[in-house]
User: Fold this.
Amino acid sequence: MVLSPQLTQFFSQVEQNKQGYIERLTDAVAIPSVSGDPSHRQDVVRMGEYLQQQLKELGASVEIRDPGVQDWNGTGRILQLPPVILATVGTDPKKKTVLVYGHYDVQPALKEDGWNTDPFTLVLDEANDKLIGRGSTDDKGPILGWINVVEAHKQLNIELPVNIKFCLEGMEESGSEGLEKIIHDEAQGYFKDVSAVCISDNYWLGTEKPCLTYGLRGCVYYHITVSGPAADLHSGVFGGTVHEPMIDLAHLLSKLVEPNGKILIPGIYDNVAPVTDKERKTYENLSFDLQDLTNSVGNTINLHSNVEATLQHRWRFPSLSLHGVEGAFYNPGDKTVIPAKVKGKFSIRTVPDMDNDEITRLVKDYVTSEFKKLNSKNTCTVELTHGGDHWLASPDHWNYVAAAKAVEDVFGVQPDLTREGCSIPITLTFQEALNKNVLLLPMGRSDDGAHSINEKLNISNYINGTKLLGAYLYQVANAQ
Amino acid sequence: MVLSPQLTQFFSQVEQNKQGYIERLTDAVAIPSVSGDPSHRQDVVRMGEYLQQQLKELGASVEIRDPGVQDWNGTGRILQLPPVILATVGTDPKKKTVLVYGHYDVQPALKEDGWNTDPFTLVLDEANDKLIGRGSTDDKGPILGWINVVEAHKQLNIELPVNIKFCLEGMEESGSEGLEKIIHDEAQGYFKDVSAVCISDNYWLGTEKPCLTYGLRGCVYYHITVSGPAADLHSGVFGGTVHEPMIDLAHLLSKLVEPNGKILIPGIYDNVAPVTDKERKTYENLSFDLQDLTNSVGNTINLHSNVEATLQHRWRFPSLSLHGVEGAFYNPGDKTVIPAKVKGKFSIRTVPDMDNDEITRLVKDYVTSEFKKLNSKNTCTVELTHGGDHWLASPDHWNYVAAAKAVEDVFGVQPDLTREGCSIPITLTFQEALNKNVLLLPMGRSDDGAHSINEKLNISNYINGTKLLGAYLYQVANAQ
Assistant:
């Protein structure tokens, strides 16, 4: 493959800047912008100010939007939310405009959690190709990757091939409070000219090959509540004489899903889109094997015997998980209680073309009918407590084609085409509000430990990731 | 019925002493002898000293035994246990000797729990025939009942018809720590000459008629542990690809017992003693109806449609209760977790002639075989965490016959013959250590709220209960 002169020049500049990029990430990681801890709220704000300063120095025009306040964990403690940063680099109406999303807050981290080093001091481990620190991969590395791209072009004194609009938030790790409204409000405002969206906030499928992610499962969460006595009872006095809610609930939970993963709710699979031949081909040659599952789970408990079935059940088939029971005895030790009211909690991961309302109807009908079969005098209710839709983009869209070409430019391989089993709600928000193609283009690897101890970003992923983001902009500019 | 001159004289003395008895209970309730709260440990000791003083003033010879120390809730905080009080009134070798057990500690109580009055200030509510205060019925009223009997005889300057040996502990509400060893140690020592045991620490079946209690169910407690992943997993990422421990556990729990109470473990009912005709007669004319069950449960969720079946399933048939799950999500709200390791907790109430070891074998075999059917790659273990045997005395024993006659002497009715569904471990300890008949002879009513707010003892139960304990001693003396 022959690279264009601009890309050659850009890649070379990135290589030269390596030390500076690492210093920039060091500065960013040093700000403990933990959005879930009120005592760090000012650090989140400070991290936002750091990014605004960097963007302004590179010539971006920067605005902020106020997401308002939050009632912290429903405690009545009112906290100001950190600003959403909107920044523009380039306004050439002849160029495409890419909306770049990222978040500048991080997960909590304490040395005592088991970190080998101080989480907020970036450790450069060249021998192992690692940059270790909280936020290195989630999501400061990727945000700085974009800033690195802009900086390299300024240093080279060449224009970016596209306009960039940044949307950077400081509450992603705490539910993105206030962001959805701002996106909808600005859809026909600040984001009016956006051609496509690029989000770099997930991970490669494995550790060796980049991927483009084009789908996410949805999630519907239910509580089954079984109530009987007015208060908890002593099992010695009442055991054998009354209908026990926990017994009824155990029977209901056992009716939801088989140990082999098959969901037992009638009709649940009816609208699941079949696997097409074209889709099946995307499962060939993926950077994944069953040992990867075993490694991440820590035990060999796979339901499926091959990679294709495993990943299809993670990405594009529904699953039902039992999360727990509220109201029953949960402490260590023994307690001879008959719990008066128990809530069984489960959720279903949904996929195209399942419809949340229809699923809720099926769930309620089924649980109600199974409860009737128990002939219990207790009462049973089923409640949807949370619902988020699945998301699917077309990997044939020019936004994806451009990203795939950029991967080839930088890595010399075709990317894995992946989906994810969990939801990233902001993806759906962007697609719905802007009605533009959204691309998930990760920088880090599957073993980065984003929400865990010793979070890392490989140095090569940071540097090549910066190249990738730049190359992607050139491919977007060339896309038809 | 014609009462003996001694009983007539004794009853009359009790009536005269009514005011003094209430004052004595007022003094006792005022000492907050909460054994479960270390800050009240000295009050428990003080309550013991109060009883020793009372007994000494009445001419008893009093000794104490040191149960040692406890590690409070496993916290490493070492607390001295309150003494076990051994007291003797009368040593006439020609008389029978009755061992009287009681406990001088109480359950915790705070006004803020919902009490209408200060829990440690005895309230005399003559209009409603009530003495309200913590410990009034459990178990200070009954202990003082015995002391009242001794006092009345001293006042009348007549000898008791039997010798009494007291065994009073201060840790009953906190597991009777240290007592079992003392009973075994003294079986051939202090308790050598005991003819029979009388414990007044349970309650009438209803609110209108005294009862004698001759049986208790046992209890075997089990944990089923299902383990899979090395740590909790995210259901978005892993749902549908791995065997989930909570799903396996729900299936296992549903296999233990039907919603109608029928235990599904094969062989579990094989050794349950059949109901004899004689036993069936004891269920006639009991002071209990189904509304009593509904009232105490706070809802109409009875499994059985008549009193006989209901009480038989409480007293003399086994039951299986599901208590809860450790390791799963138990908080309010939603969490999309796949718990890595879950423990399902259940217990079986056992009855004659079930054998604990045999039951444990049946439980383990059955759960293991049901788990195999699930074809899961998770692991499953079953563990017995607690086992206590059932207890059954013969209501034909002279000790019971004497108590039944005493009930007729005081109340003019035949007592209910009852059993209880829960265990009172000390009962079994006395029977095993001393190999003597043990009688449960309650003073209070079923609605006394022993462990609840506004605990009370009816004035009439306190006064007639004192008469009953005295009359019982005379009937014991006369028994063949």
About this structure: The CA atoms of residues 70 and 79 of chain B lie 5 Å apart.
